[in-house]
Amino acid sequence: MKTAEELRRVSEVLRLQCVDTVTKFVYKHPDLPAQAVMISLGELLIQFSVSQVGKADTLNLLAALQETVHHFGDRLVSQH
């Protein structure tokens, strides 16, 4: 079993790879609306999560993500 630190490192590598891939894709398709990219990524996340951890844990993840959206949204608003 991996330690928490190892999981954080691996998670960061995955996050950076995903950001790089999505950034390159969007750059190659500049007319693609951001909402279309967000929907595709959201569907992928949900499908993967449900298949790996089930419906209940996925719903918990989505609730945590909703809280994160509020947190980042509040920070962005306070910066302006």
Order of helices and strands: HHH
How would you describe the shape? globular
Count of runs of 4 or more consecutive helical residues? 3
Which parts are unreliable, with pLDDT below 50 for 5 consecutive residues or more?
none
Query: Percent of residues in helical segments?
Result: over 70%
End-to-end span in angstroms? 44 Å
| Number of β-strand runs | 0
Q: Mind describing the biggest β-sheet?
A: none
Mean pLDDT rating: 93
Q: Output the structural class.
A: mainly alpha
Assess the beta-strand content as a share of residues.
Answer: under 5%
Radius of gyration: 15 Å
Q: What oligomeric assembly is this protein in?
A: single chain
Quick overview of this protein structure:
The chain has three helices and no strands. 88% of the residues lie in helices and 0% in strands.
Observed structural traits:
single chain, 80 residues, 88% helix, 0% strand
Question: Could you explain the architecture of this structure?
Answer:
The chain has 80 residues and is an all-alpha fold. It is built from 3 helices and no strands. The chain is globular.
Question: Secondary-structure blueprint of this entry?
Answer:
Elements: H1 4-28, H2 34-53, H3 55-79
Helix pairs in contact: 2-3
